[in-house]
Amino acid sequence: MPMARYQPPGGRGQQPRGTLPARRQLPPPDSALRQRAVAALSIGFLSLLALFLGLGNLRRGILVAVVALLFALTAIWLGASASKRARRGGTARPRGAIGGVVLGSLGLAFSALWLLVLVVFWPQLSTYYNCMASANTNTAQQACHTQFTNSVGNEFGVLENGK
Questions:
Q1: Which among 17, 69, 92, 131 is placed 20 to 30 Å from 123, CA to CA?
Q2: Residues 124-150, buried b or exposed e (16+ Cβ, 10 A)?
């Protein structure tokens, strides 16, 4: 006697309750969109890498933060436009488009934060870097650190009091 096949509730050909319909397979994106997505991912990674490598020198840090900010904005634009063009064209989203937007957003946030820190604490940071460059002993470096901590603490006090 042959075994009966399982029939989902609701009859033949109907989808079981509580399940989502199968997604249709979209055609792959064209090569220009794939290249745009890979460029977004690469430039987003470069924005983070630039911040990581370029923040050791205070004077160079300004230029690096501005370049990283521009790279991050470019990565966001490339990734978002690749996704948008793929959706308009009825194709699948190219790999790397979302990653480029995410990395670009992280690069944008960190570079904007670093630029804000530079604007607010420029005199203190400049004095600290000059002091550390001339400090030859651990005691002198500790004195530089203490001076920097006190000056930043004073700046926060001024910011809190509004004076």
A1: 69
A2: bbeebbebeeeeeeeeeeeebeeebee
